[in-house]
Amino acid sequence: MSLACFNAVVFVVLATALSGCSSKNKNPEYVIGFSQCVGSDLWRKTMLEEMKMELSLHPGAKLVYADANGNSKTQIEQVKQMLNQGVDILIISPNEAMPLTPVVEQTYNKGIPVIIIDRKTSSGSYTAYVGADNYQVGKMAGEYAASALKGKGNIVEIMGLPGSSPAIERQRGFADGIKKFNNINITTQLYGDWLKDNAENQLLKAQTSLQTADAVFAHNDVMAAGAKNI
User: Fold this and answer.
1) pTM of the model
2) 158 with 223: CB under 8 angstroms?
3) Are the C-beta atoms of 204 and 230 separated by less than 8 Å?
4) pLDDT, tens digit, for every residue of 198-228?
5) Around Cβ 51, how many Cβ atoms within 10 Å?
6) Rounded to whole angstroms, what are the CA distances from 188 to 5, 163, 191, 212, 216?
7) Rounded alpha-carbon distances, angstroms, from residue 52 to 65, 81, 137, 139
8) Within 10 A of 23 (CB to CB), how many other CB atoms are there?
C-alpha cells in the first residue's frame, strides 16, 4: 500500500469515526491525538506531513502529536497525557503490541474511537486497523526466496523490533512460506529493530553466518539497505 493510499484510508476511517462524536457547539473543534511509535524515518515523517496537510483543510480539527522515539513506556505516558487533554479520537502506531494493549483498551473502553495504524496491539479493542497483512507479506517473501534458491539454501533473517506486530507476523509468515522446502534453512535470525544502522551492526557480529548464507531476508527495505552494505 502506497503512503498516499494509506493516508487516504486513514482519513476515510477518521471521518467516519468523528461523525459519531457530538458537540453542543455550532462550530465544534475535534481534538485528534496521534501517537507515533517512532517518527525519525522518512516514511513516518511523510505520514505526519501529509496528515497535517489534510487536517489544514478541516479548520474544526486540532492535532495533538507525540513521538515515542521507539520507547513503549514513553508512548504509554504520552497516550495518557492525550487522554487527560480530552482527545476525541486516538490514532496510534503502537511501538510494541503487548505493552501498549492496556492503554489502548482503556482509551477504547472510554468510548473514544481508536484507529490503529501499521502496527497492532494484542487485542481487538479498537475501532479500525489500517495497515498491511504482514503475515502474507512474510509468506510471499518466503515462497519467493525458496523459488529463487530452487528449494535449497541457507537464509539469514533480519527481523524488526521484538514485540512489534509486523515483526511477529512477518517472521511467522516467512517460516510458513518456506516450511514445505526441507532443504531451505534459516541459519541465523537477528533483530535490526527496523533500523539500518542496527541491522548493519548485528550483521557485522554474524560474519560467519553471512559467509555460508545464500540469501538475506530483511523485514523492511531500510534494514535490507543496511545488509547490502555489509
Assistant:
1) 0.83
2) yes
3) yes
4) 999 999 999 998 999 999 999 999 999 999 9
5) 20
6) 35, 18, 10, 10, 10
7) 10, 21, 29, 35
8) 11
Q: Which of 130, 151, 174 is the C-terminal boundary of a domain?
A: 130
Q: Which amino acid is at 56?
A: S
DSSP state for residue 37 in the 8-state scheme: S
CB-hemisphere CA count at 13 Å for 76? 14
Per-residue DSSP letters for 89-141?
EEEE--SSHHHHHHHHHHHHHTT--EEEESS--SSS-SSEEES--HHHHHHHH
SS3 172: helix
Report how far apart, in Å, the C-alpha atoms of 55 and of each of 41, 52, 65, 110 are.
Answer: 21, 5, 13, 24
Domain around 62: 3-130
For the chain, what is the domain count? Answer: 2
